[in-house]
From TrEMBL:
Protein name: Peptide chain release factor 3
Lineage, highest ranks first: Bacteria, Pseudomonadati, Pseudomonadota, Gammaproteobacteria, Celerinatantimonadaceae
Pfam families in UniProt: EF-G_D2, GTP_EFTU, RF3_C
One GO cellular component term noted in the UniProt record for this chain: cytosol
UniProt domain Tr-type G: residue ranges: 11-280
Role noted for this protein: Increases the formation of ribosomal termination complexes and stimulates activities of RF-1 and RF-2. It binds guanine nucleotides and has strong preference for UGA stop codons. It may interact directly with the ribosome. The stimulation of RF-1 and RF-2 is significantly reduced by GTP and GDP, but not by GMP.
């Protein structure tokens, strides 16, 4: 019985993240979703507006706001019969590695598109990442209260550019000042929009049936007539929703609305709770682990410095993959090969950090990390397997870090290695000299690193330009050939924070030559933890 209860609880979990281009409305939707989850009382309380628009000089403030972003990193709330876990992803593209890893911890994604703009660059990039695991995608076309592009054209663009079939679940009636609401194709209902209700949960104003004469009264006969004609075309020309294709990541249900006006977000949530998958299995080096496996297991996908700078500890975010965490339980830390008792994990119910008594497959818990936990670490109930698939990406920007006070070399190295374990930056130590080189995906990361070295490690450092274009992780089964490669290419080789051999190429031409010259060596663009 007990077991059946646990299985029922697991099946209620929906763990998802929002992917979008900055400004499409992710923050606004998050706010409305929390409103529906009764996690907040009025919209406008989640976080400061425009957190994606930080200019470089604003990042200190962003540091301060991290206090808030730790608690909003994971938000758990009930909706319908489900318990929903929404994982926030940093909006700023300089932190996109964090975003990528967060996407390994969810079972589905909501793609938000600004309906005036259509598919944008970052959405494209993030969709590529969700493809790696065939993550099911729901789509929300946002900002219908403004003049938008033709909805059919938007669906075509998603299909062409993102290679995913679209199945409209709702269809907009007008847009901008003329936005009247949506037709729910599946339920054969018209749901009417009223402007100026964005801060509250609106009562749904529903007209049953497209042919209902009330439609004329509500939106006028001309619009009613053209809506019926349009829908005939739309339903004929577009895909029907197919749950199997959705679960395979090949088809996305599409909803229309306005996050600001809090209209349509609940239709999307209905779809999420009804169709999005319960916690999915994860691959390990010893086979698959399913959510229903009785024994507890989980992996770390993100580490974040604590909001309170006086406490040096960090929070390691764990996705529970199977079984159940209970307070005080003993876990096996696979990489260290030893048992640890976890008595003070935190959960994120209703956006608030609170001590976790219990968490189950699909949930996220936060572990206090005093330097022993790294991104990618696996925790189990005694088993020695490791979860696969949490990537490090080859950085695209490099700087040499120099000390103001040369006597602090040791602290600097320690600080950088810890920051790299946390995923804040990647560190490389060339084989031929004592330089410390940091690599990042976005330039803002360098400022953050220098600031954190100063505040957390008491090391004053500066960074300077260095002539490196890209990095590749190197591997070869044949150790003799690897040795030879290390000798011949030593000028360009370095060890990363976890002692993996890396080739630092001054130019792409140089990299291509190295790949040609050393056919036995594999060069990787990503490294799994
Ligand atoms: P993001 O997290 O994806 O970056 O987007 P965010 O929610 O912050 O929204 C970006 C801007 O778009 C905000 O404007 C927000 O109010 C607006 N917005 C979001 N949803 C809608 C919608 O449904 N309709 C309309 N008309 N606007 C919407 P802002 O705070 O004024 O900032 P900005 O315009 O200066 O960027």
């Amino acid at each position: 019985m007990e077991n059946q209860n646990l299985l029922n609880e697991i099946n209620k979990r929906r763990t998802f993240a929002i992917i979008s281009h900055p400004d499409a409305g992710k923050t606004t939707i998050t706010e409305k979703v929390l409103l529906f989850g009764h996690a907040i009382q009025t919209a406008g309380t989640v976080k400061g507006r425009g957190s994606d628009h930080h200019a470089k000089s604003d990042w200190m403030q962003m540091e301060q706001e991290r206090g808030i972003s730790v608690t909003t990193s994971v938000m758990q709330f009930p909706y319908a019969d489900c318990i929903v876990n929404l994982l926030d992803t940093p909006g700023h593209e300089d932190f996109s590695e964090d975003t990528y890893r967060t996407l390994t911890a969810v079972d589905s994604c909501l793609m938000v598109i600004d309906a005036a703009k259509g598919v944008e660059a970052r959405t494209r990039k993030l969709m590529e990442v969700t493809r790696l695991r065939d993550t099911p995608i729901l789509t929300f076309m946002n900002k219908l209260d403004r003049d938008t592009r033709d909805p059919m054209e938007l669906l075509d663009e998603v299909e062409d550019e993102l290679k995913i079939a679209c199945a409209p679940i709702t269809w907009p009636i007008g847009c901008g000042k003329e936005f009247k609401g949506v037709y729910h194709i599946q339920r054969d209902e018209i749901i009417l929009y009223k402007s100026g209700q964005g801060h509250t949960i609106q009562e749904r104003r529903v007209i049953e049936g497209l042919d209902n004469p009330q439609v004329e009264q509500a939106i006028g006969s001309a619009l009613a007539q053209s809506l019926r004609e349009e829908l005939e075309l739309v339903i004929g020309a577009s895909n029907e929703f197919d749950e199997e294709l959705f679960l395979a990541g090949e088809l996305t249900p599409v909803f229309f609305g306005t996050a600001l006006g809090n209209f349509g977000v609940d239709h999307m949530l209905d779809g999420l709770t009804e169709w999005a998958p319960a916690p999915k299995p994860r691959q390990t080096d010893l086979g698959e682990v399913t959510a229903q496996d009785a024994k507890f297991s989980g992996f770390i996908f993100k580490i974040q410095a604590n909001m309170d700078p006086k406490h040096r500890d960090r929070i390691a975010f764990m996705r529970v993959v199977s079984g159940e965490y209970t307070k005080g339980m003993k876990m096996h830390h696979v990489r260290l090969g030893k048992g640890v008792s976890i008595s003070d994990a935190v959960t994120f119910m209703a956006g608030d950090r609170s001590a976790a008594e219990r968490a189950i497959a699909g949930d996220i818990i936060g572990l206090h990390n005093h330097g022993t936990i790294q991104i990618g670490d696996t925790f189990t109930q005694g088993d020695a397997f490791k979860f696969a698939g949490i990537p490090n990406f080859a950085p695209e920007m490099f700087r040499r870090i120099r000390l103001k006070d040369p006597l602090k070399q040791k602290q600097l190295q320690k600080g950088l290695i810890q920051l790299s374990e946390e995923g804040a930056v990647q560190v490389f130590r060339p084989l031929r000299n004592n330089d410390l080189i940091v690599g990042a995906v976005g330039v803002l990361q360098f400022d953050v690193v220098v600031h954190r070295l100063k505040t957390e490690y008491k090391v004053e450092a500066i960074y300077e330009a260095i002539h490196i274009a890209t990095a590749r992780w190197c591997a070869c089964q044949d150790s003799r050939k690897l040795d030879e490669f290390q000798r011949k290419a030593s000028e360009h080789l370095a060890l990363d924070g976890a002692d993996n051999l890396t080739y630092l190429a001054p130019t792409m031409v140089n990299l291509n030559l190295a790949i040609e010259r050393h056919p036995d060596i594999e060069f990787f663009k990503t490294r799994e933890h």
